[in-house]
Specification:
globular, UDP-n-acetylglucosamine1-carboxyvinyl-transferase, Chain, alpha/beta
C-alpha cells in the first residue's frame, strides 16, 4: 500500500474508464473511532476500516501504549485498550500525523495527564489547535506549552460544562466529545461540527454506553457516564472518496458504478454535480456515473457540513478545467490549499490564483502529461485524475501521500481500465 517519499505514479491518460468500484470506509471517521477505543474497557470490533497509512499510524500509536490490536478480517479490526499505559506513548509517531491530535481528549480523560507533541500531517496552511485546547480547558484541563514543542495537559477530573467552540472544527468537536463522555455531570457543546464523521464517532461511543444526544446538529448534550464497554461497530463509507470517483466519472466519459454509498451524506455533492451538468443515477446504495456531454462553469465555496466539503474542492478544481466558461472556487477554511492549481497549469489549465483562498479557472482546456508533484493528500488525488484525462504520460511525484486517504487507489483504478504504474 504505502510507498516512500519518492514514490511516483506513471500515468498514461485517455484510457476508457468503466466498471464497478466499492467505496471504502471513511478515514476521517475511522481514526477518531480508533482513538476513542482508549476510553473503552474491553474489546471493540470495528468493521469497514480502510487500510490506509494514517490508520496504520494511529494503530501503531495504540500499540505503543500497550493496546491489543489485530486485523481480524479484510477491513475488520479488534482493539482492546484495557491495558494501555501512557508512559510508553510513541511521541515521534504522534508528531508524524495530524489526526493524532484526536488522542488529546481520550488520553486526558483516561490518564488525567498527557504530554503530546504538536501533530504533523498535510501542509495545507495554518491549522491551529487552539480550538482543541479551548475545549479541553473548558472541561477543566490545565495546559502548558513546553519549549520542546509539546503540550502537557493535566486534569485530576473533568467536569461537565457548556463549551462554546469558536469555530466549526471537526476534530476539536471530536476531542471535546471524547473528553466529555466520562466527565462528571452534563456537557453542552455549542457550535459543534455536524459532519458525518462526528456523528459516526458519537454513534460508536453511544454503542459503548455513552449518552450523547444532538448528533448531526450544532448543539450536543453529553451526560457523563462512569464506564464504557466493548462493542461492535461499522465505520461509515467515505463521501470524499465517493466525490472523487464521481469527478473521475464526470471527466472520463465512461460509466462507473460506485458501490456502497450513503445517499444521505451526499446532498451538496450531488447538487453541485447537477448544476455542473455531470450525469448520474442513484439506485439505492449505488451511484452510477454516466457519460456527460457538456460541463458548465460553476461557483463553489467550501463550508462546514452540510455545506460543500473542503476536501473535495481540489477534485472539483480539475473538473473546472473541463467546464465551459469561468469557474470560481473559494476555500475560506484553509489558506494555501490551492497549490495543486500550479501543477494543473503546467499541464495546460487556464487558472489564476487570486489569493490564498480563491482561484478562477477558465475552460475547457486540454491537459497534457507532465512531471508534477503532490503537495497534499487531496491534491495528489486531483492530479492523479488530471493524469488520467491528459494526453500522453504524466509522472506524479510524492504519490505515496495519496495512500493516506485512498486505499490501494492505483490498483482499484487499474481494474476500471486506468493505466497507472507505481514506481518506488
Amino acid at each position: 500500500m504505502a510507498g516512500n517519499a519518492d514514490t511516483r505514479f506513471v500515468i498514461h491518460g485517455g484510457n476508457p474508464i468503466n466498471g464497478d468500484i466499492r467505496v471504502g470506509g471513511m478515514k476521517n471517521a475511522a481514526t477518531p473511532v480508533i482513538a476513542a477505543t482508549l476510553l473503552v474497557r474491553g474489546e471493540c470490533v470495528i468493521d469497514n476500516v480502510p487500510h490506509l497509512s494514517d490508520v496504520e499510524r494511529m494503530l501503531d500509536i495504540l500499540r505503543s501504549l500497550g493496546a491489543k490490536v489485530e486485523w481480524t478480517g479484510d477491513n475488520e479490526l479488534s482493539i482492546d485498550a484495557s491495558g494501555a499505559d501512557i508512559g510508553s506513548l510513541d511521541r515521534q509517531a504522534v508528531k508524524a500525523m495530524r489526526s493524532s491530535i484526536l488522542l488529546m481528549g481520550p488520553l486526558l480523560a483516561r490518564f488525567h495527564e498527557v504530554t503530546i507533541p504538536e501533530p504533523g500531517g498535510c501542509i495545507i496552511g495554518n491549522r491551529s489547535i487552539d480550538t482543541h485546547l479551548h475545549a479541553l480547558k473548558s472541561l477543566g484541563a490545565e495546559i502548558t506549552h513546553n519549549d520542546d514543542e509539546t503540550y502537557t495537559l493535566t486534569a485530576s477530573s473533568l467536569t461537565g460544562t457548556t463549551v462554546i467552540l469558536p469555530e466549526f472544527s471537526v476534530t476539536a468537536t471530536e476531542n471535546a466529545i471524547m473528553a466529555a463522555v466520562m466527565a462528571s455531570g452534563t456537557t453542552i457543546i455549542k457550535l459543534a461540527a455536524a459532519e458525518p464523521n462526528v456523528v459516526c464517532l458519537g454513534e460508536f461511543l453511544n454503542a459503548a454506553g455513552a449518552r450523547i444526544s444532538g448528533l448531526g446538529t450544532h448543539t450536543l448534550v453529553i451526560e457523563g457516564v462512569s464506564e464504557l464497554q466493548g462493542t461492535s461497530f461499522q465505520v461509515i463509507p467515505d463521501q470524499i472518496e465517493i466525490g472523487t470517483f464521481a469527478v473521475l466519472g464526470g471527466l472520463t466519459k465512461g460509466t462507473i458504478n460506485i458501490l456502497g454509498v450513503r445517499p444521505d451524506h451526499l446532498d451538496i455533492i450531488l447538487l453541485t454535480l447537477d448544476r455542473i451538468g455531470v450525469r448520474y443515477e442513484l439506485k439505492g446504495d449505488v451511484l452510477i456515473m454516466l457519460p456527460s456531454s457538456q460541463l458548465n462553469a460553476f461557483r463553489l465555496k467550501a463550508m462546514p457540513y452540510p455545506g460543500f466539503p473542503t476536501d473535495l474542492q481540489a477534485p472539483f478544481g480539475v473538473l473546472a478545467t473541463q467546464c465551459q466558461g469561468t469557474s470560481l472556487i473559494h476555500d475560506p477554511l484553509y489558506e494555501g490549499r490551492l497549490g495543486y492549481m500550479n501543477e494543473l497549469t503546467k499541464m495546460g489549465a487556464n487558472a489564476t490564483i487570486c489569493d490564498p483562498h480563491r482561484v478562477v479557472v477558465t475552460g475547457p482546456t486540454p491537459l497534457y502529461g507532465k512531471e508534477i508533484f503532490s503537495l497534499d493528500l487531496r491534491a495528489g488525488a486531483t492530479l492523479l485524475i488530471a493524469g488520467l484525462i491528459a494526453s500522453g504520460e504524466t509522472i506524479l511525484h510524492n504519490a505515496s501521500i495519496i495512500d493516506r486517504g485512498y486505499e490501494c487507489i492505483d490498483e482499484r483504478l487499474h481494474k476500471l481500465g486506468a493505466s497507472i504504474e507505481r514506481v518506488d
